[in-house]
Design a protein that fits this description.
The complex is a heterotrimer of chains A (361), B (295) and C (359).
Chain A lengths: L3 E8 L13 E8 L4 E5 L6 H9 L6 E6 L2 E2 L10 E4 L11 H11 L4 H14 L15 H13 L6 E5 L7 H18 L3 E5 L2 H7 L2 E6 L2 E6 L1 H6 L4 H6 L6 E4 L1 E3 L2 E3 L5 E3 L11 E5 L4 E4 L4 E2 L1 E7 L3 E8 L2 E8 L9 E4 L5 E4 L2 E3 L8
Parallel strand pairs in A: 3-8, 3-9, 6-7, 7-8
Antiparallel strand pairs in A: 1-2, 1-4, 4-5, 9-10, 11-15, 12-13, 13-14, 15-22, 16-21, 17-21, 18-19, 19-20, 22-23
Helix pairs in contact in A: 2-3, 2-4, 4-5
Chain B lengths: L8 H27 L1 E3 L5 E3 L3 H7 L2 H31 L5 H15 L2 H11 L6 H8 L10 H29 L3 H9 L4 H29 L3 H6 L11 H11 L3 H33 L7
Antiparallel strand pairs in B: 1-2
Chain C lengths: L1 E10 L2 E11 L4 E5 L6 H9 L6 E6 L2 E2 L10 E4 L11 H12 L3 H14 L15 H14 L4 E5 L7 H18 L2 E6 L2 H7 L2 E6 L2 E7 H6 L4 H6 L6 E8 L2 E4 L2 E4 L9 E7 L4 E2 L8 E12 L3 E8 L2 E8 L9 E6 L5 E3 L5 E3 L2 H5 L1
Parallel strand pairs in C: 3-8, 3-9, 6-7, 7-8
Antiparallel strand pairs in C: 1-2, 1-4, 4-5, 9-10, 11-12, 11-14, 12-13, 14-20, 15-19, 16-17, 16-19, 17-18, 20-21
């Protein structure tokens, strides 16, 4: 197990990168703590897979160093890095039994038979495959095969890190719950450093202690799920986290208020110094509320019943605005919308602006 | 997957049926006719029953030819299959070199059989052939027209040269379909090169490999043109394989009855072996997919 | 109008679809919801005419089309994979079904431009499909399905291969596109939330059987049996053994007043409730307390998933706010009886949750 340090790390797939745009991964400096559960979250092409491949040793970065603990592994091949990886699609050895699949990484490292048996039994219990141990892996369902992949990733105790590359893509929603819960339990029990790449915010937020949000080759925010939700550092984080994402409205800052283009005035709940650039306020649909009066006029376009809440899609001053109303709350006959003041964030040129005097935002 | 039923499709198959009838069914029936009759020309036939079959089953000449044939097929399979796999494993996977290698590999397959025979016939000659002269210059006593062992080696090397590409190309196609993730996983698991081959590459190649073995078996079991051009079945009868023997019997000696009985048995042997292969292949497929991936 | 009358299909002795009768009205959105291998694709292939039913009839606007070829039916299909002609421009891709039908040039041009506008593809008409993002490629495939004005449009998990956010965006667009087309849409998905967002009607599938068909919110709130409730809940519905005796109903160890269950006969039941109806505090006067053991928590930003063990049952709760609780500790959760469904011994719905009757 090891702390992972990324030092001035950058990567371009071109031999002679000319401008910043040529870099699939822009320069970054990060330290990932030993035993942490990290998620790399972003849409396809944001550089998360590039970063994962650099950590696993499949790619050598064009710049910078990768350290496991104090050891520089930048140029070390995959096999020497002592990591485990679980891929998007189940990778199992069809010709082997489930037991041999799980034992394979240990056998290759020359562990003794008694230890291997005990360890494999323990892992099989955790992934719920004890009954299938002597079966051939061939012909198992995708779910079962992916469980074997997870188990094989977990079987070595001494790995520096376990990397997961969208491991639940092929799994049914119901089964995702089970596997994710098992992963969490395994993390708690063994304390491996885990890095989980995904485009699915629910998976990232529920899995990780720290979520690393990537956008156009850059880490735009690294934080706890709560921080990403309440205080997105970049408008992309606001948009990407949450379903639907944060509402953004152009605004003009006036101390502790914001004036919208239509003349409406919003209380921000904190005082802001004047800022340059394009100013927007961001408000989560969960923090907006339909009200009878005392808010701003909202034109409702569509109401979607999502079961545990209702999603109101409307327009405020000509801009789309989404509002989430809890189950059982009425939405009819409420022509206005109000924002919870402490929950509004202010953005200048897409980056979050902190309020003065450590305000309540 | 079941398709909608449409009777019009039969009209499209009809030309093929007609061609097959003229090119295969009618000649085959003629052969059957010869196999059960005796003839002295003039289209006069006498019923011979199973006499020809009886004669052929007990013919030492046939037994010897069959033995040579089986040995030949066994040797070339034993060489071409492992060699083809080895070549496929070492072929470049992408880029300019992979296209170049693919074209080079395909070349021997494009040469007509009698040309292949002629090439090797000249190549191996001790007077003007590069190979023959070269070996002689090294002090080796090589002469495929006199020495049965040399003749066998020449015919086998020729077949290997001609057909290993086919096995290699089929295996290559099988290897290309293996996702990169498997190799990455194996590296992470610290699997040995042998384990990668045994547990990843071989299982994924199994399907195409069986097809390759089947094709090579059938072709080599019926081989005629190339050894005929190179050795003419000699020296003596040492490279007289089944089909060469058959032609000698039918065309050379004009023993049409025994030859017809012989060719029917030949046909049945190949059919039987192919059927065994097919059964093995499909049963392996079934065990591979006993749970459907998608409905 | 598409009618399936007792349609079933079995292949090699294995039943893919049990006898199914469904009526899909013109201009409706119909969701087929079920896990992988539940028969969604098989049912769609029967609707399209790609497969023939083993029994039963398929009627289109009252006429029997059971044996009719797929080419002769007005059907369009969109798959999970983005299927476009890679060598043709987006314009030519969209135009291709009309060219096959031999429509006049100006009509083709008009329809292609209309459809492209509806799917927001106008700026990309000259590009090749592989130069587009995944979402745009799938919109191109959708445009090709819609342009010929097919009466029946089948979508087989069309968003499954897209990124989460793109999925969200197309999910908003699909109902809009559907309303503009006037066709019957059939949309297969494994995700309950997707079904809810699309609205319309939902048929829940389980092991080749349609367990329920009706307006989506009603199927969600009034499932006819425990299987439907399971299929239509994400996270999965929680269950606990229940017993009614006179005026009292007991759920596991906890007792509550029979209330809305008063009319039920005495006996054993299975109680089900959804994750978001569990609470960490007494949130309603009638709420019942359950002593559980916490297995783990997952924070989604604004909410927390609680994984708890109640006796032998494994439950998932979804509560507001961020709660960092250490696993292994005893935890009390509360449940409002108004949110409890009761299923009988055969797992048929005995009594719907009180809140659902009101909704």
């Amino acid at each position: 197990m090891a702390r992972i340090t990324l030092k001035n790390l950058a990567h371009s797939y071109l031999a002679q990168p000319r401008s910043e745009a040529d870099y699939a991964l822009k320069e970054m400096d990060h330290v990932w703590q030993d035993g942490g559960a990290y998620a790399l979250l972003g849409s396809s092409g944001c550089g998360k897979t590039t970063l994962l491949n650099i950590i696993s040793g499949l790619l050598t970065p064009s710049h910078g160093r990768v350290l496991f603990g104090d050891r520089d592994v930048t140029d070390a091949p995959t096999a020497e890095r002592n990591i485990a990886q679980v891929f998007q699609f189940p990778v199992v050895y069809d010709t082997m039994t489930v037991r041999d699949n799980l034992a394979f990484p240990l056998k290759n490292r020359g562990k003794d038979a008694a230890y291997i048996k005990a360890r494999v039994d323990q892992i099989a219990r955790m992934i719920g495959m004890e009954a299938m141990l002597s079966r051939k892996a061939q012909g198992l369902t995708a779910d079962a095969k992916q469980k074997i992949s997870l188990g094989r990733g977990m079987v070595r105790e001494d790995v520096n890190a376990i990397l997961f590359d969208e491991p639940l893509t092929v799994i049914d929603p119901q089964m995702k719950w089970e596997l994710r819960t098992q992963l969490k339990a395994l993390h708690r029990q063994f304390g491996h450093t885990m890095i989980y790449v995904t485009h699915d915010q629910t998976e990232a937020l529920t899995f990780a202690d720290k979520v690393v949000v990537m956008y156009e080759g850059r880490v735009v925010q690294m934080g706890t799920p709560e921080e990403l939700f309440e205080k997105p550092a970049h408008s992309f984080v606001g948009y990407f986290i949450g379903s639907p994402g944060m509402n953004f409205l152009d605004a003009e800052l006036q101390g502790d208020r914001a004036r919208l283009p239509g003349g409406e005035v919003v209380a921000l709940g904190a005082h802001y110094a004047p800022v340059a650039g394009r100013v927007q306020i961001g408000i989560r649909p969960e923090h907006a509320m339909l009200v009878a009066s005392g808010g701003m006029p909202l034109t409702v376009r569509r109401v979607e019943d999502v079961g545990r809440h209702r999603l109101v899609r409307g327009e405020l001053a000509g801009r789309p605005l989404n509002v989430v109303m809890p189950e059982g709350m009425p939405v009819e006959g409420l022509p206005q919308v109000a924002f919870a003041p402490g929950r509004i964030n202010v953005y200048a040129d897409d980056w979050r602006v902190a309020p003065q005097e450590g305000g309540a935002a | 997957m079941e398709k909608t039923w449409n009777n019009k499709a039969w009209f499209l198959v009809l030309p093929v049926l007609v061609v097959v009838a003229f090119s295969a069914v009618i000649p085959l029936m003629t052969v059957v006719n010869y196999a059960f009759n005796d003839t002295f020309g003039n289209n006069e036939f006498f019923w011979a029953g199973l006499e020809w079959f009886d004669e052929m089953v007990h013919s030492d000449r046939l037994h010897e030819a069959l033995g040579r044939q089986a040995l030949f097929s066994a040797i070339i399979l034993a060489i071409e299959v492992p060699l083809g796999i080895f070549v496929a494993l070492n072929m470049p996977k992408k880029g300019f070199w992979s296209s170049l290698v693919l074209v080079l590999m395909a070349l021997p397959l494009l040469i007509p059989f009698n040309v292949v025979g002629t090439i090797w016939q000249i190549f191996g000659r001790t007077d003007i052939g590069l190979l023959g002269r070269g070996l002689a210059a090294l002090g080796l006593d090589y002469n495929y027209t006199n020495d049965p062992v040399d003749a066998w080696i020449t015919v086998i090397v020729m077949d290997v040269w001609h057909w290993t590409s086919l096995v290699a190309l089929l295996c290559y196609a099988g290897l290309q379909s293996i996702p990169q993730a498997y190799y990455q996983a194996a590296r992470i698991d610290q699997a040995s090169r042998w384990a990668v081959f045994r547990h990843i590459e071989l299982p994924k190649m199994k399907g195409v490999l069986l097809i390759a073995v089947l094709l090579r078996f059938m072709d080599s079991f019926m081989i005629y043109t190339e050894p005929f051009v190179v050795t003419g079945g000699g020296p003596g009868n040492s490279t007289t394989f089944l089909s060469i023997d058959l032609v000698k019997m039918a065309v050379g000696q004009f023993d049409l009855g025994p030859a017809a009985a012989f060719s029917l048995m030949y046909f049945l042997v190949i059919l039987l072996v192919s059927w065994v292969f097919y059964t093995v292949m499909t049963s392996m497929d079934r065990s591979q997919s006993d749970i459907p991936e998608a409905m | 109008m598409l009618e399936l009358q007792g349609v079933s299909r079995s292949v090699g002795g294995r039943v893919h679809i049990h006898p199914t009768s469904l009526t899909l009205q013109r201009g409706t959105m119909n969701v087929l919801l079920g896990p992988t291998l539940s028969g969604k694709t098989s049912l769609m292939r029967l609707m399209a005419g790609l497969d023939q039913p083993s029994t039963g009839r398929i009627l289109w606007d009252g006429g029997d089309v059971t044996g009719q070829r797929v080419q002769d039916r007005g059907v369009a299909m969109v798959y999970q994979q983005f299927i476009n002609y890679p060598g043709l421009s987006v314009y030519e891709n969209i135009a291709s079904p009309l060219r096959i039908l031999g429509r006049p040039r100006d009509e083709i041009d008009r329809k292609v431009r209309e459809t492209a506008e509806m799917l927001r593809l106008t700026p990309m008409l000259a590009r090749k499909p592989l130069e587009l993002s995944g979402g745009q490629q799938q919109r191109c495939a959708l445009a090709r399905a819609l342009v010929k004005g097919a009466g029946l449009v089948l979508l087989d998990e069309p968003l499954a291969n897209l990124d989460y956010k793109l999925r969200e965006e197309l999910r908003v667009e699909i109902p809009r596109i559907f309303e503009a087309s006037g066709a019957i849409f059939v949309y297969a998905t494994t995700e309950p939330e997707e079904a809810l967002l699309l609205g319309g009607q939902t048929a829940t599938l389980w092991q080749g059987r349609v367990t329920q068909f009706g307006p989506t919110p009603r199927v969600y709130r009034q499932p006819v049996d425990a299987t439907t409730a399971r299929v239509f809940s994400d996270p999965p519905m929680n269950f606990v053994g229940a017993r009614k005796q006179g005026a009292a109903v007991s759920l596991g160890e906890s007792a509550l007043a029979a209330g809305s269950f008063a009319d039920l006969p005495d006996g054993a039941y299975l109680a089900g409730f959804r994750a978001n109806h569990l609470s960490l505090a007494r949130h309603a006067p009638a709420a019942v307390e359950f002593a559980c053991r916490l297995v783990g928590t997952e924070v989604t930003g604004s909410e927390t998933f609680l994984h708890v063990e109640h006796g032998a049952d494994r439950w998932v709760g979804l509560v507001e706010g961020v709660h960092q609780l250490s696993p292994g500790q005893p935890l009390s959760v509360w449940l409002d009886p108004a949110h409890v469904y009761l299923f009988d011994a055969a797992e048929r719905l005995a009594a719907p949750a009180a809140y659902a009757k009101a909704a």
